[in-house]
Structure formats: C-alpha cells, structure tokens
C-alpha cells in the first residue's frame, strides 16, 4: 500500500496568498488554486488501487493549518511520499515565471527525492508546457514542509500568481486538470499503483472527473434510480459524490 500525503498550501484567508489584482480582478486565493489541483489528483487517483491518501490541509479552506501540524500528520501517517501543491509569487506584474519543483536543500546525493522532483517537474512541463523562464526550476530550499517531513517530499509551485504570462493560464480549469494528470502519472508509476481496468469500461487510463460524469448523468447517459447507481458504481465512480454534484448543478449553482 503506497501512502500519499497530499497538501494544498495555505487557507482561503491567508493574507497575501492570492493572484495580483491588476491581472486577476477576483484576486483568486492561492489555496483555491492549490485545492483544485489536489481535488483533481484525488479524483484521478480513484481509478487506481494500491494506495492510501490523506490531505494535510483543511479541505474546506477555512483554516490555514500550521506547517508543523501538516508535517506531523504526514509523519504519523507514515507517508511514502509528500506532495505539496502551491502557486508562486515574485514576478510583481511582469511577464515570465513557470513551474518550479522544490526539495530540501540538505538531502544527500542519490536520494530518491531527486527522482521524484525530476519526474514531477518533467511530467508537469510535458502536460502543461508552462516552462517559463526561471534559471533554476529544480530547486533546493530550506522550507519547513520539505525539511520536517520524514519521507521524500516535493513542493510543486504551479506557476506565478503575479505574472502576466502565468496567471491567466493557472486560473484555467484546463491547466489544473493537466497538472493533476501529470502528478497522477508519476504517483502511479513510482508508487506502483494499479489501474482498476476490470471495473472501468473505456480505454483511457485516467477517469473522467466528477463534473464530467455529473453532466453525463444529467444528459441521461446512466439511466435513473437504482440503475444509475449500479452503473456508476460498476464504472468505479462514487455514486454519492456524482449525485451530489448533479443536485448542485440542477439547483443552479455555478460551476
Ligand atoms: Zn504557497
């Protein structure tokens, strides 16, 4: 059983951690972007077996859990890998940026942590193309999350929230989806997860999102009542998760 500790950095109300107003009038909070990617990672992983996963952040976003509590939780869980999703700042409204993968500065040469770092970075760049212009995208830093976790740990900074180049991209659902797919591919490969092929009927290794399936349910693709429940379960989806999204959409909530 491969154990994954997944973290969406910060909380909704953490001061400063948001997109630059001149580029994003909504000043989208970093936690919202981080959590969207984490949620997609969880959804895509649910098509596989052979792992267990905990989230280290408050998944409602309300509380910014102190970093020590996050790493303590991962250590107590005995995670095999610690993945922390963040978005960056420091471009100050100019262009440029890109994805950065950070590990602890004092890990030994040949540590498997470097393989995780490289694999995640390459996978995310391959899927998103958000290479940017940073001189050193594979970084070693003395940051709490990567220092105090007892297992290989990587902080993925998924682009800059104050860059005219990155910000419009990182706000898109499509980008979040690609980052999640990139992470899941690495987790599946390095964690030895197996695809639940016996229950999933189509050929794509990555399952559809809850959102997509909910829309298909509304279009009538899965029938009604018990039939719907059985068909969704047989395909490996959580009926209750899909149904609650269907109800939300039908109640007219925004996507
Ligand atoms: Zn952050």
How would you describe the overall organization of this protein?
The chain has 255 residues and is an alpha/beta fold. It folds into two domains: 193 residues, Zn-dependent exopeptidases (Aminopeptidase), CATH 3.40.630.40; 43 residues, no CATH class. The chain is built from nine helices and eight strands. The strands form two sheets. The protein has a six-stranded mixed beta sheet, sandwiched between helices. Helix 3 links the parallel strand 5 and strand 6. Helix 1 packs across helix 6 and helix 7 packs across helix 9. The chain is globular and about 55 Å long. The chain starts with a strand and ends in a 5-residue tail after the last helix. Zinc ion binds next to loops. The site of zinc ion has 5 residues, from loops.
List descriptors.
255 residues; alpha/beta; Aminopeptidase; 2 domains; six-stranded mixed β-sheet; two-stranded antiparallel sheet; 9 helices; 8 strands; 41% helix; globular; binds zinc ion
Element layout with pairings:
Layout: E1 2-8, H1 30-45, E2 48-49, E3 51-55, H2 67-77, E4 81-88, E5 99-104, H3 112-128, E6 138-141, H4 144-148, E7 153-160, H5 166-170, H6 173-191, E8 194-195, H7 210-218, H8 225-234, H9 239-250
Parallel strand pairs: 1-3, 1-4, 4-7, 5-6
Antiparallel strand pairs: 2-8, 5-7
Helix pairs in contact: 1-6, 3-6, 7-9
């Amino acid at each position: 059983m491969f154990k994954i500790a997944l973290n969406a950095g910060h909380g909704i109300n953490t001061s400063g951690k948001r997109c630059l107003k001149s580029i994003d009038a909504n000043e989208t909070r970093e936690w919202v972007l981080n959590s969207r990617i984490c949620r997609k990672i969880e959804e895509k992983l649910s098509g596989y077996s052979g792992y267990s996963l905990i989230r280290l952040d408050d998944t409602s976003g309300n509380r910014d859990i102190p970093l020590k509590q996050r790493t303590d939780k991962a250590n107590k869980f005995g995670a095999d890998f610690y993945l922390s999703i963040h978005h960056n700042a420091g471009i100050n409204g100019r262009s440029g940026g890109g994805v950065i993968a950070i590990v602890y500065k004092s890990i030994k040469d040949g540590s498997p942590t470097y393989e995780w770092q490289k694999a995640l970075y390459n996978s995310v760049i391959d899927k998103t193309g958000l290479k940017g212009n940073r001189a050193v995208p594979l970084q070693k830093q003395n940051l709490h999350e990567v220092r105090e976790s007892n297992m290989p740990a990587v902080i993925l900074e998924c682009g800059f929230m104050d860059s005219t180049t990155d910000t419009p991209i990182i706000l898109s659902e499509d980008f979040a989806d690609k980052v999640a797919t990139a992470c899941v591919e690495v987790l599946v490969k390095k964690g030895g997860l197996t695809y639940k092929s016996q229950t999933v009927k189509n050929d794509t290794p990555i399952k559809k999102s809850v959102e997509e399936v909910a829309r298909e349910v509304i279009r009538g693709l899965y029938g009604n009542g018990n039939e719907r429940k059985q068909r969704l379960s047989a395909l490996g989806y959580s009926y209750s998760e899909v149904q609650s999204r269907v109800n939300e959409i039908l109640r007219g909530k925004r996507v």
